[in-house]
Write a structure and sequence with these properties.
17 helices; 2 strands; mainly alpha; two-stranded antiparallel sheet; Hydantoin permease; 1% strand
Length: 496
């Protein structure tokens, strides 16, 4: 029987551990081997509760990259309260779109690249899968590099004689110091080991990692506020350049950057919502994990950054650097380990799982889920990610470029599922190479999706790279999403 939005593709009880990858998905007779393996097949059971989704977002939010991105908003000339409002407005948009993209995968029990077969064709889906996979490679490298800063901190704290090897000008290669390379390798191996143990191990890790990071970050924030004295914390900070209505365009730009930061995990959120017991469980997990969780995170980020000014005499937005300034070995060790755990969490859920499915989708019989993830990990080294996230200007440019490619894919996926198909998906046809089936199109590729993708990606990229259009670069994700959505609907309006 084919599954639709009104009926679950999962017939087994929703109890016990998730079946991926330790227990296979449901492969039915007739599923074509070119489109199927045990990792890509619809799940037999969906077991994640609202807490598991909530914990997923905690791990996704609590990272060094998250704090640095939030801190980089101060470089735009905003005050603390303006940064806080921008963060919250952005995350509410993320929640709305996450609920949209979660539903098709939760109902069908299929990951992101498989559900893309409905809009791009059973073979054409490799295009959005590879794009998302390559973006995950970039993010994996960035997050690993940021977490390696904590390893570097520990090494220099206990072995200060290694300081010359942390200087890229004295001992460096490809823009990273010798000690930096070692720290990067340590984080790379630790994450690979966790990923290799499978999805159940990942779920257990994120279930406790997010709350544990909160405890330490709240303690750090509390200590800084106590040290500074509440009366000495200026939430306006020293670099505020915009007041009143003049700040609105800058706040909108900051809000867009928040959406761009989460655009990757938002696009392939179906890789995780597919495990949800119900769409309601996913929706509630998104509520607690995004606006509620992010509110607390934003308060911590803003207060912690603002308190560094009176305590250390300068604004520090990188929590690793903040911990490094504390003259207490125990605090440095706990802080460094916390940031390592936090970043491992987001890297695994956002940038290891995604390309694992995406690259496996290209050749299911030759690339397993584990092999797909390891391809991403290896590729992340060659992009020298430390050059993509080393100052606020580069951070914003990187986010704009990534958003320009992710937005069109999101717009096409949502337009196809909610408008063109009226929320109905033939699950079995997603795994069929039969030309008579719904998602075969011409040679397995949907030309309407391809034609919609071209202008939807080109327009926001022009905004990013053309100096005269840079004013719109922060909105690259929104532009790409809107153009992809509208172009796809217009092309499908002529289909009949």
């Amino acid at each position: 029987m084919n599954a639709s939005i009104g009926q679950s593709a999962i017939d087994a009880p929703i109890s016990g551990p998730p079946l991926h990858p330790e227990s296979p998905g449901l492969i039915k007779p007739g599923y074509h081997p070119r489109l199927t393996n045990e990792d890509l097949a619809p799940l037999r059971r969906q077991t994640w509760s609202r807490y598991n989704i909530f914990a997923f977002w905690m791990s996704d939010v609590h990272s060094v990259g998250g704090y640095i991105t939030a801190g980089s908003l101060f470089a735009l000339g905003l005050s603390s309260w303006q940064v806080l409002v921008s963060l919250l407005a952005g995350i509410l948009i993320v929640q709305f779109f996450c609920n949209l993209v979660a539903k098709p995968s939760q109902v069908t029990g299929t990951p992101y690249p498989v559900i893309c077969r409905a809009s791009f064709g059973v073979l054409g889906a490799n295009i959005p899968a590879v794009i998302r996979g390559l973006i995950a490679v970039a993010w994996y490298g960035i997050q690993t590099y940021l977490a390696s800063g904590a390893v570097l901190l520990l090494a220099l704290h206990f072995l200060p004689a290694l300081a010359p090897y942390a200087d890229v000008n004295l001992h460096g290669f490809a823009g990273l110091s010798a000690l930096g390379w070692i720290a990067f390798a340590v984080m790379w191996v630790l994450q690979a080991l966790l990923f290799w143990h499978g999805m159940e191990a990942i779920r257990r890790f994120i279930d406790w990692a997010g709350p544990a990071v909160y405890v330490v970050m709240a303690a750090l924030c509390g200590w800084l506020v106590w040290k500074a004295g509440w009366e000495n914390i200026d939430l306006r900070l020293g670099g505020v350049r915009f007041e009143g209505w003049d700040a609105l365009p800058v706040m909108l730009s900051a809000m867009a950057l928040v959406v761009s930061y989460f655009s990757g995990p938002m696009l392939n959120f179906g890789d995780f919502s597919r495990y949800g017991r119900s769409f309601e469980a996913v929706r509630k997990g998104n509520f607690w994990g995004l606006p509620v969780n992010f509110l607390f995170f934003s308060l911590l980020a803003v207060l912690t950054s603002a308190a560094t000014l009176p305590v250390f005499g300068e604004l520090i937005t990188d929590p690793v650097h903040t911990v490094a300034r504390i003259d207490n070995t125990t605090a440095v060790v706990i802080g460094a380990l916390t940031f390592m755990i936090a970043t491992v969490g987001i890297n695994i859920v956002a940038n290891f799982v995604s390309p694992a499915f995406d690259f496996s989708n290209v050749a299911p019989q030759h690339i397993s889920w584990r092999a797909g993830g390891m391809l991403a990990a290896v590729g992340s080294v060659f992009i020298t990610p430390w050059n993509l996230y080393n100052n606020p200007e580069v951070i914003h440019y990187t986010l704009d470029v990534l958003g320009a490619f992710i937005g069109p894919l999101f717009g096409i996926l949502i337009a196809d599922y909610y408008v063109v198909r009226k929320q109905r998906v033939d699950v079995d046809a997603l795994y069929s190479m039969n030309p008579r089936d719904e998602y075969w199109y011409s040679q397995g590729y949907n030309p309407r999706a391809m034609w919609a993708l071209v202008p939807a990606a080109l327009l926001p990229m022009l905004c990013v790279v053309v100096p005269d259009l840079r004013v719109a670069a922060s909105y690259a994700w929104f532009i790409g999403t809107a153009v992809g959505f509208i172009a796809y609907l217009l092309l499908n309006a002529r289909r009949k």
